[in-house]
Write a structure and sequence with these properties.
Elements lengths: L6 E2 L18 E10 L9 E6 L8 E4 L3 E8 L7 E4 L23 E7 L4 E7 L3 H7 L2 E7 L8 E10 L14 H5 L7 E7 L5 E3 L2 E8 L6 E15 L2 E8 L3 E3 L4 E18 L2 E8 L1 E4 L24 E9 L4 H10 L3 E3 L12 E3 L3 E9 L5 E5 L5 E2 L11 E4 L4 E8 L3 E7 L2 H5 L3 E6 L2
Parallel strand pairs: 1-4, 2-5, 4-9, 10-13, 12-19, 20-23, 22-29
Antiparallel strand pairs: 2-3, 5-7, 6-8, 8-9, 10-11, 13-17, 14-15, 14-16, 14-17, 17-18, 20-21, 23-27, 24-26, 24-28, 25-27, 28-29
The chain binds CU-O-CU linkage and copper (II) ion (CU).
Amino acid sequence: MITRRHFIATSAVLMAVPKLTFAKAPFELTAAPVSMSLLSDNDKKTDLWGYNGSTPGPTIRMKKGEMVNVNFENKVNQPSAVHWHGIRIDNKMDGVPGLTQDVVKPNQSFDYAFTVPDAGTYWYHSHNRSWEQVERGLYGALIVDEENPPHVDHDIIVFVDDWSLNNDGTLNKDFENRHDQAHDGRLGNFAKTVFEPASPQIKKNQRIRLRFINVATDRIFPLEVSGIKGKVVAYDGMPLGIPETIKDLVLAPAQRIDIIADTIGEVNIDLLTSDGPHHLGSLGVEGEAPIRDLPIEPLESNKILSPNMKNATKLELRMEGGAMSSRMMMGGMMTGNVWAFNGQSGMSEKKPFHRFKQGETAIIDLVNDTRFAHAIHLHGHHFQPLDNNESGMLRDTILLEPEEKQKIACVFNNPGKWLLHCHMLAHQASGMKTWVEVGT
Ligand code: C2O
Ligand code: CU
């Protein structure tokens, strides 16, 4: 049983105060070791790290436009920092050690204060040694409610995760395995969903919102969800202009999908594998509500600038390296520089991928010149995939299959230094990261 404290933003008492200037009492977020029963066998506890005593950490829930203060305290024995994934945040609050802040050493703290400009499903996670710290459990959901949220009977977060466990239930601590890094990353031998709330009392025909978040370090989850009839309404937090039918659900690491649907039976979530479906979790349905069959409307839109395609800067981001590549033959395996973008492995302090003028639109050719899939994430912005995107979705993380190419357009309007990396954290650990700078 996973227990966690809930922190629900309430602003009712301060109705008269303009939302944007009101800072709530600070929210305490403490990273520390936790012991959890992940396996159904209760004697086998898994030694993990969590926030406020559990993993996933507490859900931080806010209203669009609201400001939050988070006092982060580090009680694990490694330096850490908290990144607010997908939020178009003030750069100095982005939580990237070495780029936007210093690491928060053990027993030290850091105060984050930021506003959330967009409604949607986001998450927070450690951004120091993330391939280890996220795997150990340092993550949680950050939910930003719409000004007028759609009516649903149940609003449920569905964390999708895998863990690499030893036979006795303890976590495998080989976080920097070179073979994993050069292939598909660290793939767990145990996978399941974690629901928040843990056991909602759902009736048949009720309307539910499912907010899927892939918090796994490296695994791509192709999913099948049965027992519902509905639509996909958002990707990576950003609403679709026209909700899509639910088919071919794929969640790359860090990606989110929001579904609004009516239940037609027990809700089952399966991971599709080459050996057939693998059950991840289910939501029981008891009793019956009257059939309403209301249409599923688009969510209220977030205000993202559309790209200026005519004057766009054209760039290419080429993914290179991995097992069986020439980079590996040339010593990448020895030095840990397994992956590269445009020939550069790891961060170069002086040389970002690109320096943008504020408001500049870029069209970037993402070229996966490797035999492995990658999940490319840009901090502080959402971008628009240009291929096969009739619904006009916006993303903060995009999946590229082996040897795939995709074009994206992005308006770089958020000043500061922003990381651009593979969210397969074993790939990030072994060189697949760079950064961009947006001027003021
Ligand atoms: Cu989810 Cu660079 O982060
Ligand atoms: Cu990758």
